[in-house]
């Protein structure tokens, strides 16, 4: 593993942020995921939450029990240990079914017109990519995905509107999925029947940052069938797990 250079700072009176870099890249996010998992494994009992993002890891703690300087020193030691530990990670790839088109994706024409391409080309390019989940935010369960074909990068809508649960959208050079109905300014090109966030499940969020998504185009009949199987509790999201050596 390469030498890991980090910068650690306080966040308010009960948080620590560990900056791994200052850019959005696969290499930086790989290190973020490695550090996040290692901190949870070695120090998880000392933190109330560990949140990885594009290029940083934020850790929250009880300021009555621990001090910033105490935890900073231990985090630095754990990261130093990573320089010599051989780690392997599992690369989890989820397949998300999406019904594209005007009924389910009212803004797909924006993408078509912006790039002067057909609807079929938008659909084909969108489902060809393998998308990395860089982080989860701004809504609970909302995955920020990297890997969008640059030929599909499209500016946000000038005026946000109400977006349906499961809406799949494009904003700039990113794509994402709305976990529930919400105001939004992304160009909606399709919709998935899969419920990616639910308080009624043990796994409230189906996937985590560091995992990957693929989109699979489905028709309206398949959409209705999946929606029915979800209500009946018989639906199982397809996923593939690969071992990846990080060295």
UniProtKB/TrEMBL annotation:
InterPro entries: CT_C_D, Cyclophilin-like_dom_sf, PxpB. Gene3D superfamilies: 3.30.1360.40, Cyclophilin-like. It comes from the Bacteria. Keywords: ATP-binding, Hydrolase, Nucleotide-binding. Residues 6-207 form the Carboxyltransferase domain. GO terms for molecular function: ATP binding; hydrolase activity. Pfam families: CT_C_D (PF02682). This is Allophanate hydrolase. It comes from Gottfriedia solisilvae.
């Amino acid at each position: 593993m390469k030498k890991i250079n980090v910068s650690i700072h306080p966040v308010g009176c009960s948080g620590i942020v560990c900056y791994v870099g200052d850019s959005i890249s696969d290499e930086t996010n790989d290190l973020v995921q490695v550090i996040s998992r290692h901190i949870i494994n070695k120090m998880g009992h000392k933190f109330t939450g560990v949140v990885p993002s594009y290029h940083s890891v934020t850790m929250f703690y009880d300021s009555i029990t621990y001090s910033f300087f105490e935890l900073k020193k231990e985090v630095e030691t754990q990261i130093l240990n990573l320089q010599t530990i051989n780690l392997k990670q599992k690369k989890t790839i989820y397949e998300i079914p999406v019904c594209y088109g005007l009924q389910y994706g009212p803004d797909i024409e924006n993408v078509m017109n912006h790039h002067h391409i057909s609807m079929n080309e938008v659909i084909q390019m969108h489902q060809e990519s393998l998308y990395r989940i860089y982080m989860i935010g701004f809504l609970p369960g909302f995955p920020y995905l990297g890997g969008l074909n640059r030929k599909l990068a499209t500016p946000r809508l000038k005026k946000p509107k109400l977006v349906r649960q499961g809406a799949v959208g494009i904003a700039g050079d990113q794509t994402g999925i709305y976990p529930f109905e919400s105001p939004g300014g992304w160009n909606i090109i399709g919709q998935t029947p899969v419920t990616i966030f639910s308080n009624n499940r043990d796994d409230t969020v189906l996937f985590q940052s560091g995992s990957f998504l693929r989109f699979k185009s489905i028709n309206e009949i398949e959409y209705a069938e999946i929606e029915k199987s979800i209500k009946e509790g018989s639906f199982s999201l397809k996923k593939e797990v690969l071992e990846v050596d990080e060295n």
